Write a sequence for this structure.
């Protein structure tokens, strides 16, 4: 298994939290049947979810590290050959896993990485029993990641309510193969015509005026709240920004409470990057970075500017009525790595693509988790600011070549309508439509379709 996103893995250990694609376990023994069963069921469940991570060495209730129960040799206990052997022996379909190790607070934590790509449900192909013949893994059972009554995630045997989503995940992966086949064989056609055809088939059209007014209102209110709360924090470094307003435009059951709503969003975020959009920070050690309630919505402000760690200026607002807002400082202005450009001078050529793609995928996941009806559309408004005099360049992936192009425009917006029945694996055309207004201000630049598709596929596979 290749192309594991190391930054993502490190964030899972430094800021642990469970979701439908992340399972947290305390220390378990790979020599003990009960410990092996947890790994087997966890790996099968994550594979059936479309891939994910099993993070070991934390209390799954408090998310604090368990420093006293770690094995003497963590790396040999959780060696990839040991874990792969369990998966191969008990899973009905072979799939390759990886095991990464992250040292945090003087403890080495293993992270078992389960890849996406399931096309038919994975079952346990043989049983495993423990002391006294206790059944630990049942033969011919599909294990899945599912939600409990309070919207917290767990691993369990698939029940009737889980099968629709499991089958949809498998179908989406097959649909992605069909889409790639069509794009390869239609490569000679005019790209703009293909894009228009694809969006027409998907039902995408211009955002209606009334919807645009609502999006503008969410954007304005969100920015106003960001400015208000950061005023209390003190000065921030000068930076450009990218924002998104989202409306889940359809019917869905009302939420029973704000806590259950937060649990639902946390569990259903697909965590496609190390710092996902609308992330859950309730388990963060720093209380100032945890969400709070304001005007019946959850808000989160995260300002982290220590150059020795990851740097962020983020503000999020999520409302149970289906409206969402996110503000982020451009990575180009606050990153501290050796390749990072001088703040205010550059826009990386890759980051807007993966950021927009992740936002669409997370929005689709949220809407489905909220049980929105089939006629629902996701209405997006994207905005980039502070672009004037920036040069388009590639500093995140320096191997990519791009001729220097400069923007004379300071602000760019784009809108997008995405039907709820859009498979995450087919969002490429929507991403192209959303980012085109941004790239065009850099001397008319157009990102090649093949590059966008490759980046989105890597992002969906959590390899970016």
């Amino acid at each position: 298994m290749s192309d594991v996103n190391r930054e993502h893995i490190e964030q899972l250990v430094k800021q642990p939290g469970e979701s439908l694609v992340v399972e947290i376990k305390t220390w378990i023994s790979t020599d003990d049947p009960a410990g092996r069963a947890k790994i087997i069921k966890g790996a099968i469940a994550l594979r059936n979810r479309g891939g994910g991570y099993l993070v070991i060495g934390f209390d799954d209730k408090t998310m604090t590290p368990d420093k006293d129960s770690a094995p003497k040799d963590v790396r040999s206990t959780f060696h990839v050959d040991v874990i792969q052997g369990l998966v191969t022996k008990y899973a009905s379909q072979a799939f390759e896993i990886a095991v990464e190790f992250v040292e945090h607070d003087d403890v080495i934590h293993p992270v078992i990485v389960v890849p996406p790509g399931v096309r038919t449900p994975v079952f346990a192909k043989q049983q495993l029993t423990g002391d006294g013949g206790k059944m630990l893994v049942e033969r011919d059972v599909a294990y899945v990641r599912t939600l409990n009554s309070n919207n917290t995630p767990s691993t369990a045997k698939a029940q009737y309510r889980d099968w629709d989503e499991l089958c949809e995940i498998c179908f989406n992966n097959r649909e992605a193969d069909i889409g790639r086949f069509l794009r390869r064989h239609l490569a000679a056609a005019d790209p703009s015509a293909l894009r228009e055809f694809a969006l027409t088939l998907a039902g995408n059209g211009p955002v209606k005026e009334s919807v645009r007014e609502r999006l503008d209102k969410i954007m304005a209110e969100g920015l106003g709240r960001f400015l208000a709360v950061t005023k209390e924090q003190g000065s921030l470094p000068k930076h450009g920004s990218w924002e998104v307003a989202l409306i889940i435009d359809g019917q869905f059951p009302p939420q029973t409470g704000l806590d259950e709503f937060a649990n639902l969003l946390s569990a259903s975020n697909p965590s496609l990057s190390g710092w996902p959009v609308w992330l859950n920070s309730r388990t963060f050690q720093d209380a100032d970075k945890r969400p709070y309630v304001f005007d019946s919505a959850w808000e989160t402000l995260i300002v982290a500017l220590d150059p020795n760690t990851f740097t962020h200026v983020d503000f999020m607002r999520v409302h149970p009525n289906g409206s969402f807002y996110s503000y982020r400082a451009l990575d180009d202005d606050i990153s501290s790595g050796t390749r990072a450009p001088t703040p205010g001078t550059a826009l990386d050529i890759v980051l807007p693509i993966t950021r927009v793609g992740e936002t669409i995928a997370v929005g689709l996941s949220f809407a489905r988790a909220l049980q929105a009806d089939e006629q629902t559309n996701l209405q997006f408004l994207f905005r980039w600011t502070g672009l004037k005099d920036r040069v388009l360049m590639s500093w995140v992936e320096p191997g990519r070549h791009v001729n220097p192009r400069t923007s004379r425009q300071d602000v760019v917006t784009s809108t997008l309508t995405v039907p709820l029945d859009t498979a995450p694996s087919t969002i490429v055309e929507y991403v192209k439509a959303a980012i085109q207004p941004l790239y065009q201000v850099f001397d008319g630049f157009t990102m090649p379709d093949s590059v966008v598709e490759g980046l989105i596929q890597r992002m969906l596979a959590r390899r970016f």
Summary: The chain has two domains: 6-165, 202-460.
